[in-house]
Amino acid sequence: MNTDSDLSMRTLSTPSPALICPPTLPGFQNGRGSSTSSSSITGETVAMVHSPPPTRLTHPLIRLASRPQKEQASIDRLPDHSMVQIFSFLPTNQLCRCARVCRRWYNLAWDPRLWRTIRLTGETINVDRALKVLTRRLCQDTPNVCLMLETVIVSGCRRLTDRGLYTIAQCCPELRRLEVSGCYNISNEAVFDVVSLCPNLEHLDVSGCSKVTCISLTREASIKLSPLHGKQISIRYLDMTDCFVLEDEGLHTIAAHCTQLTHLYLRRCVRLTDEGLRYLVIYCTSIKELSVSDCRFVSDFGLREIAKLESRLRYLSIAHCGRITDVGIRYVAKYCSKLRYLNARGCEGITDHGVEYLAKNCTKLKSLDIGKCPLVSDTGLESLALNCFNLKRLSLKSCESITGQGLQIVAANCFDLQMLNVQDCEVSVEALRFVKRHCKRCVIEHTNPAFF
Questions:
Q1: Per-residue pLDDT tens for 139-166?
Q2: Which of 30, 285, 315, 371 could be joined to 289 by an S-S link, Cβ 3.0–4.6 Å?
Q3: Cβ partners under 8 Å of residue 388, min gap 6
Q4: What is the DSSP letter of 311?
Q5: Angle (nearest 5°) at CA 92 between 103 and 212
Q6: 268: Cβ–Cβ under 8 A, 6 or more apart, which residues?
Q7: If DSSP codes are grouped into helix, strand and coil, which group holds residue 26?
Q8: With contact defined as beta carbons under 8 Å apart, do 290 and 315 qualify?
């Protein structure tokens, strides 16, 4: 009988750590690293399954080096609940290593409370096989269904394919969080399977997955849903950063299906336009955080649509959207009065008038980035200082019109300032020292060699 087949049929087994960590990368990285273990002379990470270890280690060399039988290791004196608590801080690969020490550790390492999360990282991991073996082990008590698993993080695993996501979709109906950032081999169909078969999924990160162009239910799932339930997906957090091929029609589909969205990040989705944002605001009225940074086709008309989110919007990033001017900023400032964070770096059309209108209407602003806005001067800073007393972070990097006088006005009024970026600004050492005296907790990022 084939040896691999025989091993895979054992009912009590634990995956080898070689399954889930690169054999050539030694060490343990702060609870998320990998360990050195290999079962292949080629250096490729492979999947292995082992039976539970014996109660005692019987290797003669280990027996010679061990303590006398009457002396018990300190860690063995800990009760089970303490051991489980210690194991809870270990990443997936280290937990599998612990399961191979002895029978007691094996039983503790597979405590269901430790398997609410699977975290795998690394470019060389055969992650499809790893997910298959792990879920099969976790499904032993509930055949074909892994009820305890709620989070799967496989960011940066470039060997993840649709097969791995299909395993998750089939075995993990209680999944609530999935992160597959940087896994560029997965496609729309695999993502559709996950969101269709995991109805409780709330957090989805597909950033850097360049083949993903949409988030929707499968056709089969859409047919099965009753008209009363609707074709809805429960996702609240969605990160599609660097999904370069996402277009307005895809965003329309996403918005129509994911109406509960509160956090949406579309950084560098370069094909999106104002029309896509119009669809978004129609369906997703609960959005609190939105990023369209580096979406070069977004203009003031897009900000007019975003402003319809009104007081619900707390975080907005429009960095490097070159078509945005004071007109768009006025729309946002007028209707989104509870805005706390605004990143408008590189929006060169913004002037002191836009900053003044923003300061007077969004008085609860805590973080503002207007770096590389050459038309913003001390006049705009004065408006900020006299209205936004809760300001904690301010970036003015490469603002050519800013001087030390403007900084002093800010420092004299915004005592809670914690971060100030004035790199590549023409400000004097005296002005920087003035800021330091009045805002004692403030970290100043600068390029003035005379100030230290």
A1: 877 777 888 889 999 988 888 999 999 9
A2: 315
A3: 359, 362, 363, 364, 365, 368, 414
A4: G
A5: 150
A6: 241, 242, 244, 293, 294, 295
A7: coil
A8: yes
